[in-house]
Amino acid sequence: MTAFKSDFLNVLQERGFIHQCSDVEGLDALAAQGQATAYVGYDCTAPSLHIGNYLTMMMLYWLQQSGNKPITLMGGGTTMVGDPSGKDESRALRSLEEIEANKASIRGVFAKVLRYGFRRQRCSHARQCRMADQAELDRDAARHRPAFSPSTAC
Hints:
Elements: H1 7-14, H2 24-32, E1 37-43, H3 51-65, E2 69-75, H4 76-81, H5 96-113, E3 121-124, H6 126-132, H7 134-142
Parallel strand pairs: 1-2, 2-3
């Protein structure tokens, strides 16, 4: 077991969160100085999250508890587009009202785990998608493109 300089990585390692890391020394140095920032995106397809989201929420919690900055991105724009992940069926499309209601409900979950204020940030890219009417274009185009794969990324 490697001892890290940062409380953040020590806690994650103790709890079995770390399998591999591309620049563990760099991350450890940033986290030890309270300079690490991480974000996790969550789709607003339902009024609650699933158990898989709990792992990333806890990672953000420990990041914040160790003096670093977590950011939660509420994927309102992604939720408007649907699910272009190559599944047999696309995710059911949600109305803006339903997305906003789901987002408000999920926000309540995060309020129990993360502190609000300058050390915690939550944002949504739905506003930008609505402004540009890009979501409708993306939704229509998503059905015709292959799913992202690291092996096909440039």
